């Protein structure tokens, strides 16, 4: 680094691990080297190959710097911002007027969870739109866990995380943190933390149809038939009861429904589930006994347990095993974070609980879950004529044309829309269907704070990153505010400051109303004047941090948290390991942990019926690679170079049976689609299972992704079935898809 350069510390926004980056900026204002920030209070210098690519993302010539409009002839044109907003107003307003609020659908993609501006500004936008047609990447991901947490703890966001740094025994189901860096468990250097468990004498088990890098690195790998984690977990519960191993420990007084769980698990003996799961009965017994015997233990399930047919039952059963073995809410078990933006959850708990199905989707009648419908039914809602048909769509940081099931049909649906607006930095397979694309600033031209992921972290920490460079155009908060104003009929020229002030005002009023609020009697105008930060959304964040559990309470708690205080701590502030949260966290009407919610009890009938079914001979699962990130980082040359990664993994025994050879082409066919992929033989995948990664298929010539197009790969979601859902959550089934595979001559 030159003598006039500087080092800027910021949190990597690319995945859930929240690593600290040390970004060198040279004298002429260009990003130089990016390393892990050795002083980061949480990541201690850890970084993965993606972290340094925030430079490449920022400098990518394909990243949109100006809004683009698609003309009638299909050609794209850069336009000034005022014209872009006018196009949005001209497109949306007549549809809202002629067809009503539900005629406009919204899809929120994964990066909106990594950008707190979206998290904060989505509420006013959805209120202004007034639509019930809301969809997100949550229903191709973690919705089963929200439902199980909602039903058990009364709050769909109260997801327990494994206490990685203190546990003696960890079971990972359907998770591959050596590639993904972890999810619903924010832990920078997840692999290092898992290795530390073994180094201190603990045991780690991975349950996965494939011997992944994670599985190969831990104490034991147990291969399982895709889609059957729920069966395995119920058998473990069965064993705990049958062998008198249930001991709920200090949480016992907070549990409700123990006897009902015992009855539910009764049919799932290890012998009954062994042929289904392909895990032998002795192994199942041993897995259960080991959890019960360990001084502390945590089960943790992720994508492979959630994006399957019995996803909600599996999500629930993970926490039931944790509770029955005394590991819920205790050090080394499964615990809840206490994030800085929230008030302390004290008292005896209790609340209104969690319900789904307050509305149903128009075409197929799927229940609303957290105010959303399954993205698997988005195509139905666009393509099926009638009252309430979606005619216009807003996408925010999402690529459902590659990430949602039966994506060929969804692509057809997107092409049929009368109007579409996308807030997105790239013109990809989804946003190429938009009428107008509104690009937010790059990932280093905005501030960053992990609003969502500190609520899922294995330590309580807070870290704020100011923008490294000033934004050239409107911030993402400005864009959301402009859409809000247009949706509420105030036109394309209205000032986004109106929405910014409203957002801050609402947060302050809510904080002042909270019982025992130390700022209850303060003049709101005085509080507003004290707010800091750089982005418009920062002022909202500052309210949350200052009124949160470690907050400075606008001076009432000197030394407490605020954006200003975090700016003085560029490596973050550590509030220590997780502490007990029961019963204050509970929002169930009973103020207990509901171990046997009626919705789950009802769905277990379906699970029991499946014990007698014939399972498909060959099924497809997905996989992730360290140098990839869903569909959207394949335009970064340093990440996609090298060997083709979008291959079909096939076990050699299946390959010889099917006539497939290494490097040959195979046709993979499911109920809904067909793709052709290159075969890669793999001893580490279970027989009867093949794997293709998702997020590829960059072959659409209308995109502006030059690098990705050279490494196109195939889109695995052509094969996943839009009709296959986990009924309680509406989550798509993305793993365990029945397929036929044949050689291409
Ligand atoms: N490098 C990289 N990192 C990422 C992402 C990425 O695309 N690339 N995506 C990010 C996102 S959005 C998320 S949600 C997380 C996901 O993080 P993880 O949940 O760790 O995701 P995967 O790596 O897909 O791991 C899922 C595992 O489940 C296994 N599996 C499939 N079916 C079953 C089954 O039925 N039962 C069991 N027990 N296992 C099964 C698969 O073989 C695979 O190893 O990763 C995040 N991090
Ligand atoms: N078969 C199969 N399908 C899967 C999965 C699987 O395991 N198997 N995993 C699923 C999971 S876990 C997820 S989370 C989904 C992801 O599904 P999506 O969120 O729909 O897809 P992404 O590929 O993450 O696309 C992200 C989009 O956000 C844009 N973007 C990036 N940064 C920003 C930003 O700062 N602001 C805005 N506004 N936009 C930004 C990118 O350009 C891209 O268009 O895919 C799901 N699909
Ligand atoms: S692990 Fe995730 S947060 Fe850490 S550097 Fe890699 S992409 Fe960024
Ligand atoms: Mo995800």
Describe how the helices and strands are arranged.
Layout: E1 6-11, E2 20-25, E3 31-36, H1 54-59, E4 68-70, E5 76-78, H2 81-99, E6 104-108, H3 116-129, E7 134-136, H4 143-153, E8 161-162, E9 169-173, H5 177-180, H6 190-199, E10 203-207, H7 213-217, E11 220-222, H8 229-242, E12 255-256, H9 258-265, H10 270-277, H11 281-293, E13 298-301, H12 303-306, H13 311-324, E14 334-335, H14 378-383, E15 392-396, H15 400-403, H16 407-415, E16 419-423, E17 436-438, E18 459-462, H17 476-487, H18 497-513, H19 524-529, H20 536-547, H21 563-567, E19 573-577, E20 593-594, H22 598-610, E21 619-621, H23 637-640, E22 648-650, H24 652-658, E23 665-669, E24 674-681, E25 689-691, H25 706-710, E26 725-726, E27 731-732, E28 737-738, E29 740-743
Parallel strand pairs: 6-7, 6-15, 9-10, 9-13, 10-11, 12-20, 15-16, 16-17, 21-25, 22-24
Antiparallel strand pairs: 1-2, 2-3, 4-5, 4-17, 8-14, 18-19, 21-28, 22-25, 23-24, 23-29, 26-27
Helix pairs in contact: 2-17, 3-17, 3-20, 4-13, 8-9, 8-10, 8-11, 8-13, 10-11, 17-18, 18-20
One ligand MGD is lined by residues 15, 110, 141, 173-177, 179-181, 183, 207-210, 212, 224, 226-227, 229, 302-305, 308, 621-626, 628-630, 735-736.
């Amino acid at each position: 680094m030159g003598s006039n350069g500087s080092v800027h510390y910021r949190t990597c926004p690319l995945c859930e691990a929240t690593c600290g980056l040390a970004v060198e900026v040279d004298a002429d204002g260009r990003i130089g080297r990016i390393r892990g920030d050795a002083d980061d209070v949480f990541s201690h210098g850890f970084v993965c190959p993606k972290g340094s690519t925030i430079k490449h993302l920022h400098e990518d010539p394909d990243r949109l710097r100006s809004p683009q409009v698609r003309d009638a002839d299909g050609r794209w044109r850069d336009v000034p911002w005022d014209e872009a907003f006018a196009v949005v107003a001209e497109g949306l307003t007549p549809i809202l007027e002629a067809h009503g609020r539900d005629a406009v659908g919204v899809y929120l993609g994964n990066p909106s969870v990594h950008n707190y501006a979206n998290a904060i500004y989505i509420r006013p936008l959805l209120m202004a739109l007034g639509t019930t047609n809301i969809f997100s990447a949550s229903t191709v991901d973690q919705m089963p866990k929200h439902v199980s947490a909602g039903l058990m703890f009364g709050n769909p966001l109260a997801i327990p995380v494994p206490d990685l740094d203190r546990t003696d025994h960890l079971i990972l189901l359907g998770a591959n943190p050596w590639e993904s860096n972890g999810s619903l468990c924010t832990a920078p250097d997840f692999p290092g933390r898992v290795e530390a468990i073994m180094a201190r004498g603990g045991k780690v088990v991975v349950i996965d149809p494939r011997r992944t890098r994670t599985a190969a690195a831990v104490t034991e790998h147990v291969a399982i038939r895709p889609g059957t984690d729920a069966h395995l977990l119920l058998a473990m519960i069965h064993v705990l009861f049958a062998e008198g191993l249930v001991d709920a420990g200090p949480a016992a007084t907070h549990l409700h429904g123990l006897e009902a769980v015992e009855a539910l698990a009764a049919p799932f003996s290890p012998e009954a589930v062994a042929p289904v799961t392909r895990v032998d009965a002795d192994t199942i017994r041993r897995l259960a006994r080991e959890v019960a015997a360990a001084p502390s233990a945590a089960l943790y399930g992720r994508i492979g347990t959630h994006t399957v047919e019995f996803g909600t039952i599996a999500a629930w059963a993970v926490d039931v095993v944790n509770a029955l073995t005394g590991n819920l809410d205790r050090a080394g078990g499964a615990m809840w974070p206490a994030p800085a933006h929230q008030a302390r959850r004290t008292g005896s708990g209790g609340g209104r609980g969690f319900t789904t199905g307050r509305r149903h989707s128009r075409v197929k009648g799927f229940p609303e879950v957290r105010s959303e419908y399954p993205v698997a039914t988005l195509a139905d809602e666009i393509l099926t004529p009638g009252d309430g048909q979606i005619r216009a769509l807003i996408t925010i940081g999402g690529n459902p044309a590659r990430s949602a099931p039966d994506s060929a049909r969804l692509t057809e649906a997107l092409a049929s829309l009368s109007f579409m607006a996308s807030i997105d930095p790239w013109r990809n397979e989804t946003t190429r269907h938009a009428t107008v694309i509104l690009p937010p600033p790059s990932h280093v031209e905005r501030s960053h704070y992990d609003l969502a992921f500190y609520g899922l972290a294995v330590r309580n920490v807070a870290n704020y990153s100011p923008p490294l460079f000033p934004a050239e155009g409107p911030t993402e908060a400005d864009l959301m505010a402009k859409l809000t104003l247009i949706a509420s009929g105030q036109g394309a020229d209205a000032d986004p400051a109106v929405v910014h002030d409203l957002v801050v005002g609402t947060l302050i009023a809510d904080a002042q109303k909270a019982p025992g609020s130390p700022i209850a009697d303060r003049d709101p105008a005085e509080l507003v004047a004290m707010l800091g930060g750089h982005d418009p959304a920062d002022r909202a964040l500052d309210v949350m941090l200052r009124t949160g559990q470690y907050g400075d309470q606008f001076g009432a708690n000197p030394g407490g948290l605020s954006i200003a205080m975090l700016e003085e701590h560029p490596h973050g502030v550590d509030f220590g390991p997780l502490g007990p949260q029961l019963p204050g966290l509970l929002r169930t009407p009973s103020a207990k942990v509901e171990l046997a919610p009626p919705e789950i009890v009802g769905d277990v009938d379906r699970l029991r019926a499946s014990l007698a079914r014939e399972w498909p001979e060959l099924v497809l699962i997905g996989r992730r690679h360290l140098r990839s990130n869903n569909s959207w980082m394949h335009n970064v040359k340093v990440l996609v170079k090298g060997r083709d990664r979008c291959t079909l993994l096939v076990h050699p025994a299946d390959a010889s049976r099917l006539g497939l050879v290494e490097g040959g082409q195979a046709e993979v066919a499911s109920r809904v689609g067909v793709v052709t992929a290159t075969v890669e033989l793999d001893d580490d995948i279970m027989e009867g299972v093949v794997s293709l990664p998702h997020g590829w298929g960059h072959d659409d010539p209308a995109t502006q992704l030059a690098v990705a197009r050279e490494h196109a790969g195939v889109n695995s979601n052509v094969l996943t079935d839009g009709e296959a859902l986990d009924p309680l959550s509406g989550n798509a089934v993305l793993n365990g898809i029945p397929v036929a595979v044949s050689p291409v001559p």
